[in-house]
Amino acid sequence: MAKTLTFALLLLSACAHVAPPATAPWVVVLGIAQDGGYPQAGCKRDDCIAAWRDPSLRRHVASLGIVDPVSGERWIIDATPDFPEQLHRLDLLAPSKTLPSILLTHAHIGHYTGLMHLGREVLGAHAVPVYAMPRMRAFLESNGPWSQLVALKNIELRPLETTTRLNARISIETLVVPHRDEFSETVGFIIRGPSRAILWLPDIDKWEKWSIPIESVLARVDVAYVDGTFHDANELPGRDLREIPHPLIVETLARLDASSRKKIRFIHLNQSNPWIRGRHEGVAAEGELELLGARELIR
Q1: For residues 54 and 50, what is the distance between their CA atoms, to the nearest angstrom?
Q2: β-pairing, 155-159 with 128-132?
Q3: d(CA 26, CA 159)
Q4: How far apart are CA 28 and CA 89, in angstroms?
Q5: Are 82 and 114 in contact (CB under 8 A)?
Q6: Residues 191, 146: contact at Cβ < 8 Å?
Q7: CA distances from 205 to 17, 157, 186, 208, 267 (A)
Q8: 5 contacts: CB under 8 Å, gap ≥ 6
Q9: How many CB atoms lie within 10 A of CB 246?
Q10: Which residue, 84, 93, 106, 85, is CA-closest to 66?
Q11: Quick one: CA dihedral 55, 57, 60, 66, positive or negative?
């Protein structure tokens, strides 16, 4: 993992001629796995055992960091079960005396449970901005232990608008998507910098269920990190994937033309998915950096 960070930082420095790292906003991939991470609890497959023995093979739950080096502001999309490690990674890349603001996509365990580290038992944070949709906000306000974070003012809940301006240079467009919305809405984000836009969409049921064609969204962004939970329908023998619907990677690739496929980076990969082990092009890499002010990708 340390090697990944070092490599990513070297790449960022090498691209100074494209957009000065000292001033260009950027995002960093902090995790690419489904809610349970990789390896998941109790997994005894050979590849899981190898990952338990070698931390470099493990993968954090899907999350994205956003940084404006001019203002010193930072944001994290989703507070995952891996929040301590992901915060540490962001601190190494963009040191700050303040905690980052948090933007929540929905109320499934991989996307908000890391908020527990902001409470009195750990950080005892004060008024950390947490952006959430109305049902997500109500869920946090009405259910313990999250309601204690609100009551003790560890977090300060803020609304997610259709477009939320994070600061003068970075804005977030909120995209409501169909998903298993037992406790909250589900959203993805288009993050816009001075001259580039990046899609972050870790969870959706099926592209066909969305009122917006994914192709039209891809046409508006430079890079798209999208739901790649499962590779194909044969991945989980004995499980009914209708109970946990996601766009299969094979379906997404078959649907898109070549120019759209070039923008895609798959995230939210389940431990059953062979892509989680880096065997395919198109899987996002933890530590991957993109400059929101650049014209080229940083790879």
Answers
A1: 6
A2: parallel
A3: 23
A4: 10
A5: yes
A6: no
A7: 41, 27, 10, 9, 14
A8: 89, 92, 93, 287
A9: 22
A10: 93
A11: positive
In sequence order, what are the beta bridge partners of 271? none
Report residue 15 as tokens.
């691209």
Helix, strand, coil distribution of the chain in percent, nearest 5? 30, 25, 50
Token pair of 230, please? 């499962």
Task: Quote the CA–CA distance of 288 and 36 in Å, as a whole number.
Answer: 21
Which amino acid makes up residue 186? T
| Rounded Cα distance, 80 and 82, in Å | 5
- For 75, the 3-state DSSP assignment is strand
The 10s digit of each residue's pLDDT in 111-158 is 999 999 999 999 999 999 999 999 999 999 999 999 999 999 999 999
Give residue 293's pLDDT band: very low, low, confident or very high (50, 70, 90): confident
CA-based Rg of the chain, rounded to a whole angstrom?
18
d(CA 259, CA 256): 8
Superfamily of domain 2-289: Ribonuclease Z/Hydroxyacylglutathione hydrolase-like (3.60.15.10)
Global pTM value: 0.89
Span 232-263, pLDDT tens digits = 877 766 666 666 678 999 999 999 999 899 99
Neighbours of 199 (CB within 10 A): 23
Q: Where are the beta strands (DSSP E) in 220-286?
A: 223-227, 264-267
Which tokens go with 245? 């619907």
